[in-house]
Amino acid sequence: MDRRRYYVSVQSKSILENQGDGAYEFEVDATPEEVQTLRDLFAALEIHEYGTAFRIALQPGLPYHHDRQNDAYDDDLNEIYNLLHRIGTEETVRHLDGMRYEPGLEG
User: Fold this and answer.
1) Is 8 exposed, middle or buried, given 0-12, 13-18 or 19+ CB atoms closer than 10 A?
2) Is 88 buried (19+), middle (13-18) or exposed (0-12) by CB count in 10 A?
3) From first to last of its 107 residues, what are the pLDDT tens digits of the chain?
Protein backbone atom coordinates (compact mmCIF):
# COMPACT_ATOMS: atom_id res chain seq x y z
CA MET A 1 0.00 0.00 0.00
CA ASP A 2 1.24 3.49 -0.81
CA ARG A 3 2.43 5.74 1.96
CA ARG A 4 1.86 9.48 1.98
CA ARG A 5 3.35 12.24 4.09
CA TYR A 6 1.10 13.63 6.82
CA TYR A 7 1.63 16.29 9.47
CA VAL A 8 0.38 15.34 12.93
CA SER A 9 -0.38 17.34 16.05
CA VAL A 10 -0.95 15.30 19.18
CA GLN A 11 -1.85 18.47 21.06
CA SER A 12 -4.73 19.36 18.73
CA LYS A 13 -5.39 15.75 17.70
CA SER A 14 -5.11 16.64 14.02
CA ILE A 15 -3.74 14.93 10.92
CA LEU A 16 -2.99 17.30 8.07
CA GLU A 17 -2.35 16.41 4.44
CA ASN A 18 -0.74 19.76 3.64
CA GLN A 19 2.16 21.08 5.66
CA GLY A 20 0.93 24.67 5.64
CA ASP A 21 -2.60 23.92 6.83
CA GLY A 22 -1.82 24.28 10.52
CA ALA A 23 0.58 23.71 13.36
CA TYR A 24 1.97 20.22 13.85
CA GLU A 25 4.62 18.45 15.91
CA PHE A 26 5.37 15.35 13.83
CA GLU A 27 5.76 14.25 10.21
CA VAL A 28 4.80 10.70 9.29
CA ASP A 29 4.65 8.55 6.17
CA ALA A 30 1.48 6.52 6.57
CA THR A 31 -0.96 4.28 4.75
CA PRO A 32 -4.67 5.14 4.80
CA GLU A 33 -5.17 2.37 7.38
CA GLU A 34 -2.51 3.84 9.67
CA VAL A 35 -4.09 7.29 9.36
CA GLN A 36 -7.47 5.80 10.33
CA THR A 37 -5.88 4.05 13.32
CA LEU A 38 -4.38 7.36 14.42
CA ARG A 39 -7.77 9.10 14.03
CA ASP A 40 -9.40 6.37 16.13
CA LEU A 41 -6.73 6.75 18.82
CA PHE A 42 -7.23 10.53 18.88
CA ALA A 43 -11.00 10.01 19.29
CA ALA A 44 -10.45 7.58 22.18
CA LEU A 45 -7.96 9.98 23.77
CA GLU A 46 -10.49 12.80 23.62
CA ILE A 47 -13.15 10.67 25.32
CA HIS A 48 -10.75 9.77 28.13
CA GLU A 49 -9.60 13.40 28.35
CA TYR A 50 -13.16 14.56 29.08
CA GLY A 51 -13.60 11.82 31.67
CA THR A 52 -10.40 12.87 33.41
CA ALA A 53 -11.46 16.53 33.48
CA PHE A 54 -14.88 15.57 34.87
CA ARG A 55 -13.35 13.45 37.65
CA ILE A 56 -10.93 16.23 38.57
CA ALA A 57 -13.89 18.55 39.06
CA LEU A 58 -15.58 15.99 41.32
CA GLN A 59 -12.46 14.87 43.21
CA PRO A 60 -10.08 17.82 43.46
CA GLY A 61 -6.79 17.01 45.10
CA LEU A 62 -6.62 13.36 43.98
CA PRO A 63 -3.10 12.90 42.56
CA TYR A 64 -3.11 11.94 38.87
CA HIS A 65 -1.05 8.80 39.41
CA HIS A 66 -3.45 7.60 42.14
CA ASP A 67 -6.49 7.79 39.88
CA ARG A 68 -6.55 4.44 38.04
CA GLN A 69 -9.14 5.77 35.61
CA ASN A 70 -6.38 7.91 34.10
CA ASP A 71 -4.71 4.71 32.92
CA ALA A 72 -6.93 4.54 29.82
CA TYR A 73 -5.84 8.05 28.83
CA ASP A 74 -2.18 7.14 29.40
CA ASP A 75 -2.58 3.91 27.42
CA ASP A 76 -4.11 5.79 24.47
CA LEU A 77 -1.32 8.36 24.54
CA ASN A 78 1.32 5.62 24.60
CA GLU A 79 -0.37 3.89 21.65
CA ILE A 80 -0.32 7.17 19.72
CA TYR A 81 3.38 7.68 20.39
CA ASN A 82 4.12 4.03 19.54
CA LEU A 83 2.38 4.48 16.19
CA LEU A 84 4.12 7.80 15.51
CA HIS A 85 7.47 6.19 16.30
CA ARG A 86 6.71 3.35 13.87
CA ILE A 87 5.48 5.49 10.95
CA GLY A 88 7.41 8.69 11.65
CA THR A 89 10.08 10.20 9.48
CA GLU A 90 13.68 10.00 10.67
CA GLU A 91 13.28 13.47 12.18
CA THR A 92 10.11 12.42 14.02
CA VAL A 93 11.82 9.34 15.45
CA ARG A 94 14.77 11.46 16.61
CA HIS A 95 12.38 13.95 18.19
CA LEU A 96 10.49 11.20 20.02
CA ASP A 97 13.76 9.67 21.18
CA GLY A 98 14.81 13.12 22.42
CA MET A 99 11.60 13.30 24.45
CA ARG A 100 12.86 10.18 26.24
CA TYR A 101 9.97 8.32 24.71
CA GLU A 102 10.43 4.56 24.99
CA PRO A 103 8.97 2.64 22.01
CA GLY A 104 6.68 -0.15 23.08
CA LEU A 105 5.97 1.39 26.47
CA GLU A 106 2.57 0.46 27.79
CA GLY A 107 0.58 2.30 30.43
Assistant:
1) buried
2) buried
3) 799 999 999 999 999 999 999 999 999 999 999 999 999 999 999 887 765 655 555 555 655 555 566 778 888 999 999 999 999 999 999 999 998 766 665 54
Q: Considering the entire predicted model, what is its pTM?
A: 0.80
* Distance from C-alpha of 34 to C-alpha of 3, rounded to nearest angstrom: 9
Q: Is 77 strand, coil or helix?
A: helix
- The overall longest dimension of the chain from CA atoms, in Å, is 49
Q: Rounded distance, CA 26 to CA 81, Å?
A: 10
The Cα-based distances of 99 to 30, 64, 88, 102, 106 in angstroms read: 22, 21, 14, 9, 16
